[in-house]
Write a structure and sequence with these properties.
Structural class: mainly alpha
Largest sheet: none
Number of domains: 1
CATH class: Mainly Alpha
Number of helices: 20
Distance between the termini: 37 Å
Radius of gyration: 22 Å
CATH topology: Hydantoin permease
Helix content: over 70%
Shape: globular
CATH architecture: Orthogonal Bundle
Amino acid sequence: MSNATPDSDYPLSEVPNGARKGLFSTAILLFGFTFFTATMFAGGKIGMAFDFTTLLWAAVIGNLLLGLYAAVLGLIACRSGLNSVLMGRFCFGEVGSKLSDMLLGFTQIGWYAWGTATIAIVLVKILGLPESLTIPLMVLFGFGFCLTAFVGYKGLDLLSRVAVPAMLVLLVASLWIATRDIGGLSGLLAVEPSESMSLSVAITLVFGTFVSGATQATNWTRFARSGRVAVLASLFGFFIGNGLMIVAGAYGAIVYQQPDVVEVLVLQGLSMAAVVMLFLNLWTTQDNTIYNFAAAGCNLLRTGKRKTVTLAGAAIGTLLAIGGMYEMLIPFLILLGSIIPPIGGVIMADYFYGHRARYPKLAEVRLPAFNWVGLGAYLIGALSAYFSPWVAPLVGIAVAALAYVVLFEANKALVGRQQVAGA
């Protein structure tokens, strides 16, 4: 028996067929999620290091890999009706899955603190407000941004339908003005890079900046009506949406030496548009972020009270923002970008190899406290990613998946020998 109710977004159970969504709903929600200010800074770094043509290749390769990663996890989520934290029970065990819950939950609450602090600080700066309003604004937005997540999938969907088209219009207008300011396409192509970076580092930046988000996009692709919807929505969000953020950040860095589209809009004399863009940009990511935290928190605590966990997460994120801890958290969260992707690698291997592409129903299966095959594979993948000189997130995913297959076969052989000896 599930302790999830029909309006609770199924935090502890599979999404039933009657609650599934179509392509537009799933795609626009993921698109809004990937409209993220921090991704633009990665684009800005790349924009200063390459000519425009090479920059586009780095963006295409990095975001295609990211989109494919999200799409495979999305396909699994759609077929099983489970998100990453619930799939973690099969991969890591009933108790072992709490490791992934804590890792995934902590990254999301850290980003929530960053977004809450960012909007308060930037609004005070752009609008010339008194500094004393910074903390009250953090409290206002810390709880305000979680309202659509509190409602659930329907709230996230509704906001995305309004915000995404508005942000696209502002972004296209800003890019058009930037192209005019630099002297057209010929002027853009003539810009010489002022810094240096290898292509593999650029791809790592593109792929790694939002890979933790891609790992948890299963919170929405599990609502997809079909595998095709899940795959196309993932590619739209993470290949197109994240790609736009990278290119927009690079554009701003090349033309104005400023990767953040909000700052660019201010430089272009569009201050009110900048406020609107900042508000929508952060809200469509913040509500998804706190929704991710609630999903991880519900699995960690084994509670169906998603709305309560959402409010608790908003309170924690707000306190972290007020305490200034968001400044110290960001380097750690970027570090987690290399140790979170192996979770996705283990999920893929466990689903396709360990369970032959079919999970049993969660309510009907008895799982071990610890799945040492999955935990061991994750540890090997995370260490490989951490010490890898190459594209660390990709290495982590590939090594974790391969290690799972090897450990799975070794464990099966060991069990077989024990059974023979026992007989």
